[in-house]
Design goal:
Radius of gyration: 22 Å
Largest sheet: 18 strands, antiparallel, barrel
Number of domains: 1
CATH class: Mainly Beta
Number of strands: 22
Number of helices: 3
CATH architecture: Beta Barrel
CATH topology: Porin
Distance between the termini: 13 Å
Length: about 425
């Protein structure tokens, strides 16, 4: 997911691409090259429930990433990754999204001092433009689904001591300027830390704190919101079940208003052994909304920088703000290279006095008096086909069926979406 974490310190043989992964330059100096190309086609029918403008459309997305990882000496490296993201034919409302297109630009460029002994731990410092990821990507993700992945500019300190891993960061999100040079958003800063305890081979606990500060802009007041969260996962001893539980709360200010919001997500998975490795998951998600009489957004969960469709359905109809979701997910390996996934989702509003929000966190449908709680439901079917080490094909369809809230606030036609993508990686 994050290419700079790959370890090619030892030369390998047996694969066509191996000569590119460790190129000896001088004593203790070597270079690794890599990248990927991804092409994706999408189809929308009655986009987000229909309405004005073009709501049925086909369009295509292509992105290319190339990186070089230069190890100058045992503890010093420089990593540079460039990208090109292009899109064609999207005539849906809003046209091309910010994350659809980006002319040739720098995705990552940092210097790293790594594996430094300090006390009983080993420490790494990374400074520059880089991708960030916490846990299951519910609050901080490079957003791989987007054609132009998310990146940040700042500094990260990482340390490992036995079963404990510590990460601290300070960064600005990088703003995509599709026809010019991307720049860090100096009016928004993110800082915080995470501690991970690997208490068993397949069990861990994360505890994290993130503070997002945004300067005032026009009539929008300055805000500062702290996100305090924890996640734990692992097998249930003596059974074929595994659990995951993540929760968080947000405190802070937005202008003169105090902020109090929270979220909770949980999954329970039953896995069967055998060649097809079927698995069944039941789960739920909750992200708070703002109640009547409270300042706007003061009780609405800020989803920060998450991975999108992985949690609330592949159609990306909704974001993790003022939402309750119940889901059931089934997975099955048709062969050693093909994995199938089907899911059902039901959505309601957490607060009937707040809006519903799209995958970017923007208002999708505003709240109206006495509007119902039910947002709708979704069914997904997706597949992954891994053709060797370097080629992968993904495809899927989703059907979002609007509920009573959509009918009360505008167009409410069933929304269908499908995609097919091919990714070549080296």
């Amino acid at each position: 997911m994050v290419r700079y974490r790959e370890d090619w310190s030892k030369p390998l043989t047996g694969d066509l691409m191996d000569p590119l992964k460790h190129i000896a330059l001088w004593e203790d100096g070597w270079l690794s090259l890599g990248g990927h190309v991804r092409a994706r086609a999408e189809r929308d029918d009655n986009f987000l429930g229909g309405g004005a403008g073009t709501r049925t459309d086909n369009f295509g997305l292509v992105r290319v990433h190339l990186h070089g990882d230069l190890h100058v000496m045992p503890h010093l490296r420089a990593f540079v990754e460039g990208r090109l993201a292009s899109a064609r034919g999207r005539d849906l409302p809003g046209g091309f999204r910010t994350t659809d297109r980006d002319d040739a630009d720098v995705q990552q460029a940092f210097v790293e001092l790594n594996d430094i002994a300090l006390g009983s731990g080993r420490w790494t410092v990374r400074v520059g433009r880089q991708e960030l990821l916490f846990g299951r990507e519910r609050v901080l993700s490079p957003l791989d689904w987007a054609n132009a992945r998310r990146t940040f500019q700042g500094a990260v300190i990482e340390g490992r001591d036995g079963a404990l891993t510590f990460t601290a960061l300070w960064a600005h999100p990088v703003t995509i300027v599709s026809a010019a040079v991307n720049v860090p958003d100096v009016h928004t800063q993110l800082w915080g830390a995470q501690v991970t305890w690997q208490h068993a081979a397949s069990a861990l606990t994360d505890i994290y704190a993130l503070v997002k500060g945004v300067d005032a802009a026009g009539v929008v007041p300055a805000s500062q919101r702290a996100t305090l969260g924890a996640r734990t996962l692992g097998p249930i001893a003596g059974t074929a079940f595994a659990y995951e539980l993540e929760g968080g709360m947000q405190l802070g200010t937005a202008g003169n208003a105090d902020v109090q919001a929270w979220m909770l997500a949980t999954d329970l998975t039953r896995t069967w052994s055998g060649p097809h490795a079927p698995a069944l998951t039941v789960g739920a998600d909750y992200a708070s909304g703002t109640g009547a009489g409270a300042a706007a957004q003061s009780g609405t969960w800020d989803q920060l920088y998450p991975l999108a469709h992985a949690f609330l359905g592949f159609a990306d109809a909704l974001g993790r703000r003022n939402v309750i979701e119940e889901r059931i997910v089934a997975q099955w390996s048709a062969s050693s290279t093909v994995r199938l996934r089907g899911s059902l989702h039901a959505f309601q509003r957490a607060s009937t006095d707040d809006a519903i929000y799209d995958a970017t966190g923007a208002v999708l449908r505003g709240s109206v008096p006495n509007a119902p709680r039910e947002i709708g439901g979704e069914a997904d079917l997706t597949a992954i086909w891994r053709i060797g080490r370097h080629l992968r094909v993904d495809g899927g369809v989703a059907r979002f069926t609007p509920g009573a809230l959509f009918a009360a606030t505008g167009a409410s036609q069933p929304y269908s979406w499908g995609f097919l993508s091919v990714t070549a990686t080296f």
